[in-house]
Amino acid sequence: MLQVDGLTLGYAGIRVLEEVSLRVRENTVTTLVGSNGAGKSTLMKGIMGLKPPLAGEVRLDGIRLAGLSTSEIVARGVVLVPEGRELFPKMTVLENLQVGASLGGDEARKKRNLATVTELFPVLGRKLSMAARNLSGGEQQMLAVGRALMASPRFLLLDEPSIGLAPLIEEQLMASIRQVANELGLGVLLVEQNAMLALEHSDWAYVIELGRITKSVASAELVDDPSIVDAYLGG
Ligand SMILES: Nc1ncnc2c1ncn2[C@@H]1O[C@H](COP(=O)(O)OP(=O)(O)OP(=O)(O)O)[C@@H](O)[C@H]1O
Ligand SMILES: [Mg+2]
Q1: Tens of pLDDT along 173-207?
Q2: Which CATH number do you get for residue 159?
Q3: Where does ligand 1 bind, in terms of residues with CB under 6 Å?
Q4: pTM score, two decimals?
Q5: Of the residues 11, 35, 81, 192, which should be mutated to test ligand 1's pocket, given the most ligand atoms within 8 Å of the CB?
Q6: Residues 6+ apart with CB under 8 A from 233
Q7: Structural domain containing residue 95
Q8: Parallel/antiparallel/unpaired status of strands 155-159 and 187-191
Q9: How far is the CA of 94 from the centre of ligand 1 (A)?
Q10: Which of 73, 34, 24, 7 is nearest to 188 (CA)?
Q11: Domain count, the chain
């Protein structure tokens, strides 16, 4: 289990997260719902050790991650797909995937991971030698998720993976993410513009408002009452 306890974090003296606590469990998709500027991306950066906390801690299987570098956190199985994909546009699909695998693991494991990724996203398997920049927007998002999977994560943090995608592709990507969590037993923490769609494909949800967690609830409960979600996202 990935556990955040009392995480407080800020930029230049301004607090952005106030004592945030949450749990991400294996084999489960957890959605973080909140309006623009609520602190969702900052929370993910905090988990990855990209921003040192003012207070609180992140633990993996009960062990504190404080003081570890981001690459050490990745090596322990916590991987972030950041906002805006950050692919290498001139490199091929295969090369982008290999970058994800370069952080560790033997050749056999890399082969297994590549097989998993191309099984989940067959279109990537067919376009391994194509430059990443020539992929469609949806294919690029799949590549970003696929690249993260190459690092053999146990916990995957996805920051708006479907931004800019057509509704049908968005739906497919969300379904794939659910499938990844179930088939590989991953814990996924998902931030998504389209909160309702994410909730439909997730198990548990946290609502974050102005840097504070204000609700922790089964996703189905929010799906059944969309007005609640509208109220939280209203700003
Ligand atoms: N590098 C930074 N320096 C200063 N302030 C920042 C920085 N990054 C984020 N902030 C501020 O922290 C707050 C939370 O930002 P964050 O990016 O975490 O929000 P978010 O919930 O991910 O929003 P969005 O849905 O728009 O992506 C905002 O008020 C933002 O202006
Ligand atoms: Mg964000």
Answers
A1: 899 899 889 988 999 999 988 899 999 999 999 99
A2: 3.40.50.300
A3: 11, 16, 34, 36-42
A4: 0.92
A5: 11
A6: 33, 34, 35, 195
A7: 2-233
A8: parallel
A9: 32
A10: 24
A11: 1
